[in-house]
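Re: zinc ion structure - here you go.
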Amino acid sequence: MTRNSTQAQPTKPDERYSRQVLFNGIGAEGQRRLGEARALIIGCGALGSAHAEALARAGVGRLRIVDRDFVESSNLQRQTMFTEHDAAERIPKAVAAANHIGELNSDINVESEIADVNHSNVERLIEGCDVVLDGTDNFATRYLINDACVKHETNWIYGAAVGSYGVTMTVRPHQTPCLRCVFEEAPPAASAPACDTAGVIMPIISVVAAVQASEALKLLTGQFDALHGSLMQFDVWRNEWRKINPGPPAPECPTCGLNRFPTLEASAGDFAAVMCGRNAVQISPTRPTQVDFSALAERLRGAGEVKFNDYLLRFRTGEFEVTVFQDARSIIRGTDEMKTARSLYAKYIGN
Ligand SMILES: [Zn+2]
């Protein structure tokens, strides 16, 4: 869906961006370039909220925001784009973000998409985008972004935060190392601190997202010399700040050296995925479909409590809560076992 709020009286651009135009690194020409740029934000949780706000306020002309989830009260401590109302109504994050951006800068165009980013849509999503910002919470999606961006020569900005620690790196395909040059394999799930065991505080989100947003502004205005050119690490609790020089791109890197993009190929393994720190499993339908929420609600009514809005249907049965999106993708909460989630999906949603 696309939102372009022209109904509000837009601020005069010269006034709105005057402080940013005064800033040497951007200037009038940089501002013009920002207005013509399109940025893709993948994942609109804590980092993505901060990216979206920073780029919208800076006047990046087109923002494409993709997120698979809906707002919950546990998000509000750090996901600055959302309100208690969004959580109470379970508004999908991509929609809530587009609504709020429309209120803070009606001059820009926001395309929001409620979707799980995977091999089937990532290349379409990055098409026509000048930069991609990583607001995801898992390595699988980051390797997918890395493969798609290297294949299409699109700059992207990796970012991650957990606890009080954060890390970021900017990837310019074939000019700088890609994610796989630096981390050949994703850390095994059990060894990496996950959001459910380590938690996370908002200040580290702000730090990582601020560096990512600054890098995006540099890329979009063509200020490549100003990029930090490192793997940058921070810990705002231990007071450690580090810049690691990742060297040049690795010639033997499977992605940017050998041009292999395995994550872009279809595989059956994509069907179900455990969601980081959520005690939840996401199930994707095996074939494209559109759900009729009122018909499904009617069917489920005898089996538990059902509610739905324009974007999603929620069904509670026993200790499980099933959230179904229009494309039949579902998030099953109350388990982190794929088998249990799959059987609940087959029983109640079908497909
Ligand atoms: Zn590489």
